[in-house]
Write a sequence for this structure.
């Protein structure tokens, strides 16, 4: 698939989602970047800002299967992966697949599940497979987890461990709409929910083709070095207890390559790295306790990194 076709595909899906979601173009772009890069997204914000609606609109815009799980403290790992049960009629054990056997998995309020259940998603998200009773079962392509969580309410929640957070390509905050967007939301949903009328505009084959080709976007060696220097700087920052892992640098590379396509280019610029640094890197930082209590502390640290690490010139970037 040519890179121009990937951009066209993303534009069609974005326009389709935009018929439901008002005024969140940047958030939709981030979801599309994760989708094409075969990554997962953590949507975080207070209730009622449209996290679940956005995830459902994304799934419905694609001709792929989608399943939703409401995470609760009593949810078991087998409720996600499935079980082998004994069929008395057939006289044998049979496998009953869980909701992870889908293309898009909407994990609603993921931080309400226990760490044991949360960890059952690790193999699914990283390896694209599930191991049950000693047997490994591959997941279908494409496979994407869109998880939502409420960052304000602490009762009955279990914070995601660093290993789990590191599996999410992006962490995105919805934010409240502007007054104008708020009025448009009321007008759009006054009679019925436009999600019910939403039709798919892309299929699994197109998505897989896009996922196979996006990595052909050129990235100059100086920009690769820039990504590594940002990551290394995060490990020595005074407010950081644990910096970004090599998986984080790989995730940033994938994200900027897809962003370049969405911007109509077949090469990466420093601006792509600057634009994707916060959503890709911030949630991977383990901050020291005093810093952790501040609002948007991780994003502020990434902002400092972007100011402190020298940026390659655009002329060098264009040589890629």
């Amino acid at each position: 698939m040519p890179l121009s076709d990937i951009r066209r595909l993303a534009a069609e899906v974005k326009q389709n989602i935009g018929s439901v979601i008002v005024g969140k173009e940047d958030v939709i772009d981030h979801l599309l970047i994760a989708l094409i890069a075969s990554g997962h997204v953590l949507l975080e914000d207070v209730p009622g800002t449209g996290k679940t609606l956005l995830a459902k609109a994304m799934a419905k815009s694609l001709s792929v299967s989608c399943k939703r799980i409401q995470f609760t403290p009593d949810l078991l790992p087998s409720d996600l992966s499935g079980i082998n049960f004994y069929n008395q009629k057939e006289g044998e054990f049979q496998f009953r697949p869980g909701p992870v056997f889908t293309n898009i998995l909407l994990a609603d309020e993921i931080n309400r599940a226990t760490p044991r259940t949360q960890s059952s998603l690790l193999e699914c998200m990283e390896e694209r497979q599930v191991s049950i009773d000693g047997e490994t079962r591959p997941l279908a392509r494409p496979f994407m987890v869109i998880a939502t969580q409420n960052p304000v309410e602490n009762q009955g929640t279990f914070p995601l461990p660093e290993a789990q957070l590191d599996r999410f390509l992006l962490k995105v905050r919805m934010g409240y709409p502007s007054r104008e967007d708020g009025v448009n939301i009321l007008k759009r949903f006054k009679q019925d929910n436009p999600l019910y009328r939403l039709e798919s505009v892309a299929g699994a084959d197109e998505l897989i083709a896009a996922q196979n080709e996006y990595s052909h976007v050129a990235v100059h060696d100086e920009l690769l070095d820039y990504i590594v220097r940002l990551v290394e700087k995060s490990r020595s920052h005074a407010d950081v207890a644990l910096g970004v892992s090599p998986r984080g640098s790989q995730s940033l590379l994938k994200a900027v390559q897809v962003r370049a396509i969405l911007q109509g280019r077949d090469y990466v610029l420093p601006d792509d790295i600057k634009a994707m640094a916060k959503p890709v890197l911030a949630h991977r930082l383990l901050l020291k306790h005093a810093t952790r209590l501040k609002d948007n502390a991780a994003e502020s640290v990434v902002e400092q990194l972007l100011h402190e690490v020298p940026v390659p010139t655009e002329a060098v970037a264009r040589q890629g």
In short: The radius of gyration is 20 Å. The chain has a mean pLDDT of 86.
